[in-house]
Design goal:
It contains 17 helices and no strands. The protein is mainly α. The chain is globular.
């Protein structure tokens, strides 16, 4: 009788822990990221399912743009994984390595990307048959790494290998479809860099469509951050092609979803710069100036909140993205000034000076 009662108690508390963990995942999928974080910290016991707990928190922090805290939580999850023997490893453990590698690309820690991908690939081949699609998941962060390092041909090889193995496999999971959408996003960026706008538009449309896929939603919910990013890319390509009407239609969709990822500063800066460009094209100068000043403030916040906490090595690697935003901001201010939309006493110039001082742009 006592044994039965003990088993009941263990089962009850295990079920309670699963329910709390399940609630966190439901909140994430509804785009209620801060609620998911608060609920995890207050209600979920991290010792019950530590890898899932820390991975869930890491995903939530990454979605709101807190990359520093996201990296910390992924490393917490990795700490538990490192204690396991090879026989105890699960597919979800490998996902932690791959997701941390993807985050490491974003924060500019190339060495960490290479170490994680190398370890993930070595362990995978001992678990699954050679051509199993899950073996190619690390190719996504590896391809993104090569793109950021300027090795375009290598980037294309790894990204297309990843894409083809997922596409032509007999087994594809929700996570694979989510990352399948991401790979088209990066390939669109590569095509845009190579000035192949026709191909870039095709790939960007594919990425945006896959971000709405029912399996993508099951894996990461409404996936606001990646959907906004995909729509931003699509809008910018339309603008580059001179189709401002279609670009505006797309950016309006992105703007509606932006509220859920306000903390993702780089994403917000990108959206503001695209909107400012469109308002300038429509000769709505007052709104264009307002948006460019908001973009400056967001870039200052990025320096104060994230950039200063990165290592010198990470700062060096993430600097090209930072400089790209600065160039776009200052170019927009110059266009306004050159066309006499800004006077010598305009608040935009004062804000620009403040921006340059605070960011060393």
């Amino acid at each position: 009788m006592r044994l039965a009662f003990t088993i009941f108690l263990v089962s009850f508390f295990h079920l309670a822990a699963l329910c709390q963990s399940g609630k966190v995942m439901r909140l994430l999928k509804k785009g209620r990221f801060q609620e998911a974080i608060d609920h995890s910290i207050q209600k979920v016991d991290p010792e019950k399912r530590p890898v899932r707990y820390h991975k869930g928190l890491a995903r939530a922090y990454a979605l709101i743009g807190d990359d520093i805290q996201a990296e910390k939580e992924y490393k917490n999850a990795l700490g538990y994984i490192n204690r396991k023997s090879r026989k105890e490893l699960k597919l979800s453990d490998f996902d932690v390595m791959d997701e941390l590698a993807l985050l490491s690309v974003r924060i500019g820690n190339w060495q960490q990307v290479k170490a994680l991908v190398s370890r993930s690939l070595q362990l995978r081949v001992r678990w699954w048959r050679k051509n199993d699609p899950v073996n190619f998941r690390p190719y996504l962060p590896l391809g993104m790494l090569h793109f950021n390092e300027g090795s375009i041909d290598s980037a294309k090889y790894y990204l297309n290998t990843f894409k083809d193995n997922i596409r032509f496999s007999n087994y594809t999971s929700h996570l694979d479809v989510d990352q399948y959408a991401d790979v088209f996003q990066v390939l669109a960026d590569i095509a845009a860099v190579e000035n192949d706008l026709r191909l870039a538009l095709h790939l960007a449309k594919k990425s945006a469509r896959l971000q709405r896929h029912v399996w993508t939603k099951k894996e990461v919910g409404k996936n606001y951050a990646d959907r906004v990013k995909a729509l931003n890319t699509l809008a910018w390509i339309y603008i580059q092609k001179g189709d401002f009407k279609e670009g505006e239609k797309i950016i309006i969709k992105a703007d509606r979803m932006l509220a859920s990822v306000r903390g993702n500063l780089l994403l917000n800066i990108d959206t503001h710069l695209i909107k400012s460009r469109l308002e300038y094209q429509k000769e709505n100068i007052s709104e264009s100036k307002h948006l460019i000043m908001e973009a400056m403030q967001l870039q200052i916040e990025f320096v104060q909140r994230t950039f200063i906490y990165l290592s010198e090595y990470e700062k060096e690697n993430i600097y090209p993205k930072f400089k790209s935003n600065s160039d776009r901001i200052l170019s927009r201010v110059y266009d306004l000034y050159k066309n006499e939309y800004i006077s010598d006493h305009d608040p935009v110039l004062a804000k620009t000076l403040d921006y340059i001082i605070n960011t060393k742009a």
